[in-house]
Amino acid sequence: xxxAPPKACPCGSNLLFAACCEPVIAQHAAAKTALQxxxxxxxxxxxxEARHILASHQASANDISDTRIQQLRAELGSQHWLALRIxxxxxxxxxxxxxxxxxxxFYREQDGSIGQLHERSRFQRNDDHWFYxxxxxxxxxxxxxxxxxxCGSHRKYKKCHLNAT
Length: 165
Ligand SMILES: [Zn+2]
Ligand SMILES: [Zn+2]
What we know:
- It is a single chain.
- This protein is an alpha+beta fold and about 160 residues long.
- It has one domain (about 15-160): Roll (Nuclear Transport Factor 2, Chain: A), CATH 3.10.450.
- The chain is about 20% helix and about 25% strand.
- A four-stranded antiparallel beta sheet has the order 1-2-3-4, covered by helices on one side.
């Protein structure tokens, strides 16, 4: 097969995948910050990269079997992740040991409507590796006609995806 053309990173960073989340997902480079790990986990959800999701979650990092990878990959296959919005970050820098990232991830529901996962996630650094610990679910963000579109275009929802979905 010819090499695939370069693709934009699913995390919405405006970088190419190869220059953003791909090295972290492929374990060629460790995430330097909690935010970088958060972005790579979102991209892994969007791309069905089950191994990275398990390996970057502290609860499952040491217990990754082929069966678990296949189960998770099957679950991911029925999900349609659309965009990631980072709302807030606390600590989680290279020298920190813990970090918090609040994000909203948008996905397409079975009926075609836009669903949200709005979460405040906790991360912890062990040696040179950041791990996702757990998170608190938060209420849905308002998605009014004049609010910023979920896709990260910086346009109003009504001028962007409202009628396109
Ligand atoms: Zn990325
Ligand atoms: Zn949009």
